[in-house]
Amino acid sequence: MLAFVTGGVRSGKSQFAESLAMKIAKRDNKSLYYIATSLRTDQEMDERIKRHQANRSNHQLPWGTCEKSKDVGMLAERFSKKDVILLDCLTILLSNEMFHASRQEFSNEFSNKLFLKIVREIEKLKMASHTLIIVTNEVFHEKVSTDRGVFLYTKLLGKLHQHLVESSDAAFSVEYGVPIVKKGSCI
């Protein structure tokens, strides 16, 4: 099963996704895993990471954590159909893949290859698990930058969102801490 969770920054999407993962794991007697894609880049990010870790440790069900900023498909062999995986978040994963590699010329060919790479890696995680929940940021309410790299990033993220929602079993948008079902349901 694939669930897609989106929302604005600080909308409560990660908290909702964690709650969803725990409900599925408890209902179906599965293990919980968290794939963290964030890099510790500054004090604010370090505090956010610590807050997320504390939230997960305060629950009755234990979480395993994998820190993987790129190439998340390589983790698939660690999981089984006994696992519920929460990947947080696609927005940062794409940024890591696109901007932290050797400096790329941001061509359409590069964008297409990266799209296919990320889709394949997510498919590997989905196939290796009972449930994969993907968290992402809604960044499409802002004016799009004219910078070539940022423009292609935004375009690629939108393309990934559309593909993942289309192939998902459930999709949610979280606004002000309130999840809104956009497609299906898995709880």
Automatic annotation (TrEMBL):
Enzyme Commission (EC) number: 2.7.1.156, 2.7.7.62
Binding locations of GTP: 7-14, 36-38, 67, 88
The protein's annotated pathway: Cofactor biosynthesis; adenosylcobalamin biosynthesis; adenosylcobalamin from cob(II)yrinate a,c-diamide: step 5/7; Cofactor biosynthesis; adenosylcobalamin biosynthesis; adenosylcobalamin from cob(II)yrinate a,c-diamide: step 6/7
Gene Ontology biological process terms in this record: cobalamin biosynthetic process
Keywords attached to this entry: ATP-binding, Cobalamin biosynthesis, GTP-binding, Kinase, Nucleotide-binding, Nucleotidyltransferase, Transferase
GO MF, any single term: GTP binding
CDD domains: CobU
Record flagged with keyword Hydrolase: no
Domain of life per record: Bacteria
Active site: 52
Keyword Transferase: yes
Swiss-Prot/TrEMBL catalytic activity: adenosylcob(III)inamide + ATP = adenosylcob(III)inamide phosphate + ADP + H(+); adenosylcob(III)inamide phosphate + GTP + H(+) = adenosylcob(III)inamide-GDP + diphosphate; adenosylcob(III)inamide + GTP = adenosylcob(III)inamide phosphate + GDP + H(+)
Coiled-coil spans in chain: none
InterPro entries: CobU/CobP (IPR003203), P-loop_NTPase (IPR027417)
Record's signal peptide: none
Primary role: Catalyzes ATP-dependent phosphorylation of adenosylcobinamide and addition of GMP to adenosylcobinamide phosphate.
Family membership: Belongs to the CobU/CobP family.
Name of the featured protein: Adenosylcobinamide kinase
UniProt source species: Metabacillus arenae
